[in-house]
Design a protein that fits this description.
There is one protein chain. The chain is mainly beta. The longest helix is centred in the last third of the chain and has 15 residues, at 160-174. It contains one helix and 21 strands. The strands form three sheets. The protein has a nine-stranded mixed beta sheet with strand order 1-2-5-8-11-14-17-20-21. The chain has a six-stranded parallel beta sheet with strand order 3-6-9-12-15-18, with no helix packed on it. Strands 4-7-10-13-16-19 form a six-stranded parallel beta sheet, with no helix packed on it. The two termini are 17 Å apart. The protein is globular and about 40 Å long. It has one helix at residues 160-174, and strands at 4-6, 12-14, 18-20, 25-27, 32-33, 38-40, 53-55, 60-61, 66-67, 82-84, 89-90, 95-96, 100-101, 106-107, 112-113, 118-119, 124-125, 130-131, 136-137, 141-145, 151-155. Helices cover 9% and strands 31% of the residues.
Length: 175
């Protein structure tokens, strides 16, 4: 038996990944979800009809990362959807509690991304970064450090748009 479940759209999901609430999760073409990943699409109320987790095409989730959409402050909705754009990667052991990862974003290993935060397009989040709740990372930004020490944001060149897309495509073809 293969370690992977492969779909007709080219998506590969490890048999060792944990997906809760699969009916509330949308996974686009050519995504990879590695062993130990946990996607929590569980709805806490029966009123939500839209997906809780949406992964864009060529999304790449490394081993042991956790995607757990944030709780809402609104009484009619218990969860805020998590949307991950196209050509984006989440590193090993990273915990994602934010609401949006834009297109062409590279998130390193061992990060913690706080509730209701937003990472816009074409960003690089270095290893071991902790982003506080409700933080907005502007497009074309490299982030290092941690909010409990000092979060450092540096502007990236527009050329990184293509680099990040090629990196995501390369990861998919190698794994």
């Amino acid at each position: 038996m293969s370690e992977w479940i492969e779909t007709s759209s080219g998506t590969r999901i490890s048999r060792l990944a944990t997906i809760v609430g699969a009916s509330s999760i949308t996974i686009s073409a050519n995504c990879t979800i590695h062993a130990g990943c946990k996607l929590n699409g569980e709805e806490h109320t029966g009123t939500q009809k839209n997906p809780i987790i949406i992964l864009g095409k060529n999304s790449f989730l490394e081993k042991d990362c956790v995607v757990d959409p944030p709780s809402s402050n609104q009484p009619e909705e218990s969860r805020v959807p998590f949307v991950m754009g196209n050509y984006s990667t989440i590193g090993e052991r990273t915990v994602v509690r934010l609401s949006l990862v834009g297109n062409r974003v590279s998130i390193g290993s061992d990060c913690f991304l706080g509730e209701l935060s937003v990472i816009n397009d074409c960003c690089i989040i270095e290893n071991d970064v902790k982003i506080p709740p409700k933080t907005v990372i502007p497009p074309y930004t490299r982030v290092s450090g941690s909010y409990d020490k000092s979060l450092v944001m540096e502007e990236l060149s527009a050329a990184y748009r293509r680099v990040l897309e090629l990196d995501s495509r390369l990861l998919f073809s190698l794994k």
